[in-house]
Amino acid sequence: MIIEFVLYLALGAAAGLLAGMLGVGGGLIIVPALAFSFSLLGFNHDLIMPLALATSLATIIITSISSIRAHQKKQAILWPLFKRLSPTILIGAFLGGLMATYLPSDGLRIFFAAYAILVAIQLYLGKQPAEGSSHYSATSTTIAGIAIGSISSLVGIGGGSMTVPYLLWNGTSIRNAVATSSAIGLPIAIAGTIGYLSRSYQIDNLPANSLGYIYLPAFLGIIISSYLFAPVGAKLAHQLPVNTLKKFFAVMMLVIGLKMLFSL
Prior knowledge:
Blueprint lengths: L1 H21 L4 H14 L4 H29 L5 H22 L4 H21 L12 H18 L4 H10 L4 H27 L9 E2 L2 E2 H21 L5 H20 L3
Antiparallel strand pairs: 1-2
Helix pairs in contact: 1-2, 1-9, 2-3, 3-5, 3-8, 3-9, 4-6, 4-8, 5-10, 6-8, 7-8
């Protein structure tokens, strides 16, 4: 148990560093690492992906609060836009988490792998939509909120890889888009976690030390170290060749995605 907890501390540190340094959500690292860890621990195959996804989302609740505090100090979060998107984000994230509990673990694995591959390609190419003109209509925010929330829950992330491009496309500056996206990660994580928990108590054979689909040793280890290391990553972003690191991370995510995609 001690060795296992130390490994989760290391995972949280890596996720925190990458999130702070590259602006990439830790969920893309946490989910495959947890899935691999749970497989080694001999957890029920059908429970591995729901456990990894729900635990990842639960950790994002804590780490997103730290991120919000950092961005709020710079007055970069557009709170009116946050309030406008949050209702449909909450609905989409809850439905995504609930839906995931009815899907087979292999289906969730394939969906995550496909998403990771797409993010890897986008990150490697460094493509973001140009800042457009603002057209946050009620229809577009509803569709975007439900889509971002539900997909984020299904892959266990805070949604920045979708939220930032959407905000840029609608005329928000990159500085405000990144900050507002970090705030939007909180309702995604909360609602998504509730979605997973809402049915997890009906599931048999959950591992010991679990709170529904949240595996507590992993949750605690990750939040402790990621909370501490995210600010370190943010400082390193100003000292290291971030564009080169992003390409390296993109290749790593591509390998992880392909491995998960073709795993038996």
